[in-house]
Design brief:
It is a single chain. It contains eight helices and four strands; from the N terminus they run H-H-E-H-H-H-E-H-E-H-E-H. It is α+β, with helices and mostly antiparallel strands. Helix 3 packs antiparallel against helix 7. The radius of gyration is 18 Å and the shape is globular. The two termini are 34 Å apart. The structure holds flavin mononucleotide. The site of flavin mononucleotide has 12 residues, from strand 3. Flavin mononucleotide binds next to strand 3.
Length: 219
């Protein structure tokens, strides 16, 4: 796939075929992402790949925490407010997603069902959790973001789909416990990955973008 075409066609995938992803393909995709740029080549990313019985176990733990509305405890600072323009985009994103799924404003039950799908990894056969050392700061978080863009694009290029999920990072202690990861590693974000099912209702919605001239000034 052409690189530019890949960038233009990548999208979050929230419905997957019930077909496992061969480990060799996961390795290919991760190793391409591992070529990402980073501050003085420090490569802070550490990835936990979770499939099979462990995937089911972890999904069960997270689902129960989310279902019972256990308070989240993110390792990374989460925003409590946004500048107005960003808040507006976020609201439009939420409203259009619910609209595409035919979920009404007051339908709290279906809205909650949709939220909980995150913790079932949207039925993807593979989940990933991205960690970095807890002593690291914003520059390394930037490196993590570059790595994640590489990962989503390499997955797309390999015929896979994925969804980055901040929601999966809300219960880092449970994830570390389940995977035997020390608390010297902080959880940045989670991700679901698999072969896309483009007919799945959750994939009906396609995000929009602001116009180029809204975010670029020429000097
Ligand atoms: C850091 C980050 C966290 C995200 N968390 C979630 C999430 O918890 N659940 C979800 O369904 N999508 C999540 N997304 C996906 C965004 O909603 C999506 O990228 C955005 O709406 C643009 O859509 P697109 O990726 O299809 O272009 C996240 C994306 C990023 C980059």
């Amino acid at each position: 796939m052409e690189l530019l075409q890949g960038l233009q066609t990548r999208r979050s995938i929230r419905g997957f075929q019930p077909k496992p992803v061969p480990q060799e393909l996961i390795r290919t995709v991760l190793s391409a992402a591992g070529r990402s740029a980073s501050y003085t080549n420090t490569q802070p990313w550490e990835v936990a790949v979770v499939t099979g019985a462990k995937r089911d176990e972890l999904s069960g733990v997270l689902y129960e925490l989310a279902r019972s509305n256990t308070p989240t405890n993110y390792d990374v600072l989460t925003p409590t407010s946004w500048p107005e323009a960003l808040e507006q985009r976020s609201k439009i994103h939420g409203a259009r997603r619910f609209e595409a799924l035919g979920i009404g404003r007051g339908d709290t039950e279906r809205r909650n069902e949709l939220r909980l799908k995150n913790f079932q990894f949207f039925d993807a056969p593979c989940a990933m959790f991205m960690f970095m050392d807890s002593t690291l700061g914003p520059w390394s978080t930037l490196d993590m973001g570059i790595f994640l863009q590489g990962l989503t694009l390499s997955a797309h290029g390999a015929g896979l789909g994925c969804c980055l999920q901040a929601s999966l990072a809300g219960y880092p202690d449970a994830i570390r416990d389940c995977l035997g990861i020390p608390n010297t590693k902080k959880l940045i974000v989670g991700m679901s990955m698999g072969y896309p099912d483009l007919d799945a209702p959750l994939n009906a919605y396609q995000s929009t973008r602001m116009e180029l001239d809204e975010f670029v000034k020429w000097y």
